[in-house]
Design goal:
Layout lengths: L3 H24 L3 H10 L3 H30 L7 H15 L7 H7 L7 H33 L5 H23 L1 H9 L5 H8 L9 H28 L6 H16 L5 H16 L6 H29 L11
Helix pairs in contact: 1-13, 2-13, 3-4, 3-10, 3-13, 4-5, 4-13, 6-7, 6-10, 6-11, 10-13, 11-12, 12-13
Length: 326
C-alpha cells in the first residue's frame, strides 16, 4: 500500500505539473493579447452584468455535469457527491493539458475501484455520446439556417443534407439505447486474449437501465441550454450584435462542429477561434471581438474549473478507498 506521505508528495508534484502546463497553455495563446485589448477598450459599466451572469452560470454548468456523472456511475457503483465532484474537476484539470483530453479519463475513473474502471470507460462513452447527440440535434437546425439564409442552397441539397444528418442522429440514438447489446455482442467476439479479459469486466454495463440513459440525456439537454445561455451573455458582453435567430443558429452550429473535433490541448482553443470566425464572420463582426469572446468563454468554462481541480488534487488526500460510500 502506498504510504500517505508518498501519496501526498505525488499529489503536490501532479498539481504543480498541471498548473505549469496550464500557465504555459494560456500564455501560448495569441488570442490572449486580443482579449486583453478588447477588455481595455470596453465600458464595463454598460455590459458587466453579462459577464457576471456568464460567470455565475459556470458552477451551474459543471454542477449539472457532477450530478449527471454521479447518477450514471450509480448504475455500477455508489459514489458520493464529493467523489463525483473530485472526479469531474480533476478530470477537467488533467484533460485540458493532454491530447484529446485523455487525462479526463484518469480523473473520472479515479473514484472507482480498479475492477470497475473498465465499465467506467464505457460510462464515459455513454456520457459523451448523450451530450454529442444533443449537440448534433440542435446543430442540424443551425446549419440548415445558414445553408438556407447565407449560402442559399436549393431545396434539393437542403433535403439531402437534412436526411443525411437525421440518419446519423438515428444511428447515434440507436447506439446509445443499445449500448448494452453492443457490449454483450463484443464480449462474444474472438478477440485477442488481453481484450477478452478486459471485455469480461464489462458485465456491470448491463445494469445501466433505459431510465438512467433517459436521465443522462435530460441532464445533457439542460447543460446544453446553460452553456448556450453563457455563450449568449459573452456575445452581448463584447457588443457582438446579432439577431436572436442568428445567435441561436450560430451557437448551435459551433457546438456541433466543436463536438466532432478531437484536438491536442494547445490546438483546441485555436480551433474554437477558427470555428467561431467561420460562423460569426458571415455577419462582418469584429474579428478581435469574436476571438476575445471565444477565449473568455474558454477561460470561464475550462480554465477556472481546471484551477479548482488542481486545488482539489493539491489539498485532498484521496484514493478510491478514501471515503466511505453512502
Amino acid at each position: 500500500m502506498t504510504s500517505p506521505h508518498f501519496r501526498r508528495f505525488g499529489h503536490v508534484i501532479l498539481a504543480i505539473g498541471l498548473l505549469g502546463l496550464l500557465i504555459w497553455q494560456i500564455s501560448s495563446q495569441e488570442d490572449l493579447l486580443k482579449t486583453w485589448s478588447e477588455f481595455k477598450s470596453m465600458d464595463f459599466t454598460k455590459n458587466i452584468f453579462y459577464l457576471i451572469l456568464a460567470l455565475l452560470l459556470m458552477p451551474i454548468n459543471w454542477g449539472i455535469e457532477i450530478i449527471k456523472w454521479k447518477n450514471l456511475v450509480s448504475t455500477i457503483d455508489k459514489i458520493t457527491g464529493r467523489q463525483s465532484t473530485y472526479a469531474v474537476l480533476t478530470g477537467i484539470s488533467m484533460g485540458i493539458v493532454t491530447p484529446a483530453r485523455i487525462g479526463e479519463y484518469i480523473g473520472r475513473l479515479s473514484v472507482l475501484t480498479p475492477e470497475k474502471r473498465p465499465p467506467g470507460v464505457v460510462l464515459m462513452f455513454i456520457n459523451s455520446l448523450a451530450q454529442n447527440i444533443i449537440n448534433i440535434f440542435f446543430g442540424i437546425f443551425g446549419i440548415l439556417y445558414f445553408l438556407d439564409d447565407y449560402y442559399q442552397f436549393d431545396d434539393v441539397k437542403l433535403n439531402q443534407y437534412f436526411v443525411a444528418v437525421c440518419l446519423l442522429s438515428i444511428l447515434l440514438i440507436s447506439l446509445y439505447f443499445n449500448i448494452r447489446k453492443v457490449v454483450a455482442v463484443t464480449q462474444k467476439l474472438p478477440l485477442p486474449l488481453f481484450l477478452q479479459r478486459w471485455f469480461k469486466k464489462l458485465d456491470l454495463i448491463q445494469n445501466v437501465s433505459n431510465k438512467s440513459l433517459v436521465e443522462t440525456g435530460i441532464y445533457s439537454l439542460v447543460r446544453y441550454f446553460v452553456y448556450f445561455l453563457q455563450y449568449c451573455m459573452i456575445l452581448k458582453f463584447f457588443n457582438l450584435d446579432l439577431g436572436i435567430s442568428q445567435m441561436m443558429a450560430g451557437i448551435a452550429t459551433i457546438f456541433m462542429v466543436q463536438s466532432g473535433i478531437p484536438l491536442p490541448p494547445l490546438s483546441a482553443i485555436l480551433a474554437r477561434g477558427e470555428i467561431a470566425l467561420m460562423v460569426w464572420g458571415m455577419y462582418n463582426l469584429s474579428v478581435s471581438g469574436i476571438l476575445a469572446a471565444t477565449f473568455t468563454l474558454w477561460v470561464i468554462n475550462l480554465i477556472i474549473p481546471a484551477l479548482f481541480g488542481i486545488a482539489i488534487i493539491l489539498f485532498t488526500d484521496y484514493n478510491s478507498n478514501s471515503y466511505e460510500n453512502d
